[in-house]
TrEMBL record:
The keyword Transmembrane helix applies. The chain crosses the membrane at residues 246-267, 399-418, 430-450. It comes from the Archaea. It holds the Pfam family DUF2207. The lineage of its organism: Archaea, Methanobacteriati, Methanobacteriota, Methanomada group, Methanobacteria. This is DUF2207 domain-containing protein.
Length: 541
C-alpha cells in the first residue's frame, strides 16, 4: 500500500470522527420555536382547556401556521389568539386530521407592516373534548406535547388535574426529551423538556382515578379494565427504548472497529520490509536464476525489467548456449531440454534472427525485438510466479476482499435495521453516521484487494535483505577493496549485478580495483562488452 492509500484511510478516519461530533440541526426557514409554554387544564367534566404560548423568531414573512391534530371523535372549540405587542389576523380551517390556525402578525393597527426578522409571542387558547378516555377502572389522558414539523429549543408543560395527584401515574414518551418532572402543586405537574428536533414527537400519558370526574359526557368511554394493560404497554415501550439504545451503541462500536480495521491490516501486513544494513555479504547469497533475482529484488516481486533480459542472455553465454564469434556476432549451440521456457524463448528469438547460422546484434530487427520483449517480460514473469510462494503471501489482499464483502453486508443490514427501529432514540443518528462513512472505505478496500502489494514472508524478508546487502557490497568500492570478490565466480558477479541494475557502478568499482590488482584470465571484459552492446542496441526499450 502506497503513502496515498494510507493517507486516504487516515482522512476517512478523521472525517468519521468529525461527523460523529457534528450534530444535524433542522430549522424551519420561516421561523424558529425558541421557547414554548403550555398549560393543560383537565376539567371535572372531562373537557381539557389548553393554553399554548409560543415564542417565535420570525424570519422571512409574518405568517405562522399551527396544526392541531385530533384523534377520532375529538373536537376543538373556543379558539382564540393573543399576540402581545403585535396586531394579528387569523383564520381557522379544518384539515384531514385536525385543525389549522393561520396567524399573520403586524406591527401597526392598520396591519400594513408585517412582522419579520424579530421575535414574537403567539398564545393559542382552545378547548378539547373527548381527550379523556374513561375505562372501567381508570381514566387515561394522552397529550401530544410536541407534534410539529419544526423543532423547539425549550418547552415546559403544566398539566393541571381536577383534584390532586394522589394515585396518579404519568409517563413521557420518549423519556430522553425530559429534563425534569415534578408536582409543583397538589394538582399541577410541571415537565421541562430538552430541545426537540423537527418532525419528532413527545407525548405525555397520565392515568387518573375516575373519582376526579363527575361525568363522562365529554370523554370517550371504553368498557374494559385498562390500567394493567396501560402499565404493561409502557413497560414494553421502555424496554424497546433501552433495546434500541443498546443496538445503536453496538452499531457505533462495530462501525468504529470496521473503520479502523483496514489500517490494522495495513500496519500488520503491508509495510515494506526493513533492509538490514549491518551485515556485509560479499559472496553471492543464493544460486537462483538472474531473472528471478531481477524480479524479486529489482522489481519487488511485481515485474521483470529489461535488465533481467540482459542478465539472462549473459547467463546463457556463461552456460555456453550462446557462443560469440566476435564482439557483435554469435551463434546458438544445441538447446538442452533442461533450459527454462523463458531461456528457450530467447534462443528461439535469436534463431529467427540468424543469418547463415550466425546472429549479428546490429542487424537484429528492433520492431521484432520490441514485440518479443513485451511478450517475453509478461510470460517470464508468469513462469517464475509460482516459484515465489515462499517469498510472498496474499494475506492482505484476501483480508481486504473479505473485509469489503463482510462490511458491505454489515452496512446494508445495519442501515436497514437501525433506521427501522421504533421508538426513535437520539443515538440512531450516531449509528447512521458511523455506518454510512464505511461506504467509501468499502470502495477503497475493494480496490486495494486487487492493487495492494503482497506481503513478504519471514523467509522472503531474509532473502530480500541478503540480496540488498550483497547489492550494497557490489556498489561500494571500499567494501570490494577490503573484501575482493571471488575471481572464480566473477562472471556470476557480473550477471547478478546486471540483474540488480547495478552493473555500471559495479564495473566502475572493479576497474578501479583492477587498476591496483592483477586479474587472472576471466571472461570479465567480454561480458561487460556484451552488456554494453545489448544495452546500447536496445537502449530505448
Amino acid at each position: 500500500m502506497n503513502k496515498k492509500t494510507v493517507t486516504a484511510l487516515k482522512i476517512l478516519t478523521i472525517i468519521f470522527f468529525i461527523l460523529m461530533l457534528l450534530s444535524f440541526s433542522s430549522a424551519n426557514d420561516d421561523k424558529d420555536n425558541v421557547f414554548v409554554k403550555k398549560i393543560v387544564s383537565i376539567q371535572e367534566d372531562g373537557c381539557v382547556n389548553i393554553t399554548e404560548d409560543f415564542n417565535y423568531t420570525l424570519r422571512l414573512h409574518p405568517n405562522i401556521y399551527r396544526n392541531i391534530q385530533l384523534d377520532d371523535n375529538q373536537e376543538i372549540s373556543n379558539i382564540s389568539i393573543e399576540t402581545p405587542g403585535f396586531y394579528n389576523n387569523y383564520n381557522i380551517s379544518n384539515t384531514s386530521n385536525g385543525v389549522q390556525i393561520h396567524v399573520s402578525l403586524y406591527s401597526d393597527a392598520e396591519k400594513t407592516k408585517p412582522v419579520v426578522n424579530q421575535s414574537a409571542n403567539v398564545i393559542y387558547h382552545y378547548k378539547k373534548t373527548r381527550a379523556i378516555t374513561m375505562y372501567n377502572d381508570v381514566a387515561e389522558f394522552k397529550y401530544d406535547a410536541w407534534d410539529m414539523d419544526s423543532g423547539v429549543v425549550r418547552m415546559t408543560t403544566y398539566i393541571q388535574l381536577p383534584k390532586n395527584h394522589e394515585n396518579v401515574e404519568f409517563w413521557t414518551n420518549p423519556s430522553y426529551y425530559v429534563s425534569s418532572n415534578i408536582w409543583i402543586t397538589h394538582n399541577t405537574l410541571q415537565t421541562r423538556f430538552r430541545s426537540i428536533e423537527a418532525n419528532k414527537t413527545a407525548q405525555q400519558i397520565l392515568i387518573i382515578p375516575k373519582s376526579q370526574f363527575n361525568t363522562t359526557i365529554n370523554a370517550n368511554v371504553v368498557n374494559i379494565d385498562a390500567k394493567n394493560s396501560i402499565e404493561d404497554n409502557q413497560e414494553k415501550y421502555e424496554d424497546n427504548l433501552n433495546y434500541n439504545y443498546m443496538v445503536t451503541y453496538i452499531t457505533c462500536v462495530l462501525s468504529i472497529i470496521l473503520l479502523l480495521t483496514p489500517l490494522g491490516i495495513y500496519y500488520k501486513y503491508n509495510r515494506q520490509p526493513k533492509t538490514s544494513n549491518n551485515k556485509i555479504i560479499q559472496k553471492i547469497p543464493y544460486n537462483d536464476s538472474p531473472l528471478f533475482i531481477n524480479n524479486i529484488i529489482h522489481g519487488n516481486g511485481n515485474y521483470v525489467t529489461i535488465d533481467g533480459f540482459y542478465a539472462t542472455v549473459v547467463d546463457l553465454v556463461d552456460k555456453k548456449y550462446i557462443e560469440f564469434i566476435d564482439d557483435t556476432t554469435f551463434k546458438i549451440n544445441n538447446k538442452e531440454s533442461h533450459l527454462l521456457d523463458y531461456e528457450i524463448d530467447i534462443l528461439n528469438f535469436f534463431i529467427n534472427q540468424k543469418n547463415k547460422n550466425q546472429v549479428i546484434i546490429d542487424k537484429i530487427d528492433e520492431v521484432s525485438f520490441n514485440k518479443f520483449i513485451s511478450k517475453w517480460m509478461k510470460k517470464s514473469y508468469e513462469s517464475i510466479y509460482r516459484n515465489k510462494m515462499d517469498f510472498f503471501q496474499n494475506t492482505s489482499q484476501k483480508l481486504y476482499k473479505i473485509y469489503s464483502i463482510i462490511t458491505s453486508i454489515y452496512v446494508i443490514g445495519a442501515l436497514y435495521y437501525v433506521l427501522s427501529l421504533q421508538p426513535d432514540v437520539p443515538t440512531i443518528n450516531w449509528a447512521f453516521r458511523a455506518t454510512i462513512i464505511l461506504i467509501p472505505v468499502i470502495i477503497l478496500t475493494a480496490v486495494l484487494s486487487y492493487k495492494v502489494p503482497r506481503q513478504w514472508t519471514n523467509y522472503g524478508i531474509k532473502y530480500y535483505n541478503n540480496w540488498k546487502n550483497f547489492e550494497l557490497y557490489l556498489t561500494d568500492y571500499n567494501l570490494i577493496k577490503q573484501y575482493p570478490p571471488d575471481m572464480n565466480q566473477i562472471n556470476k558477479y557480473i550477471i547478478y549485478s546486471i540483474a540488480l541494475g547495478d552493473i555500471r557502478t559495479f564495473n566502475r568499482n572493479m576497474e578501479l580495483y583492477f587498476k591496483y590488482n592483477t586479474m587472472e584470465n576471466t571472461e570479465y571484459g567480454k561480458y561487460i562488452k556484451l552488456y554494453s552492446i545489448l544495452s546500447s542496441k536496445f537502449k530505448n526499450i
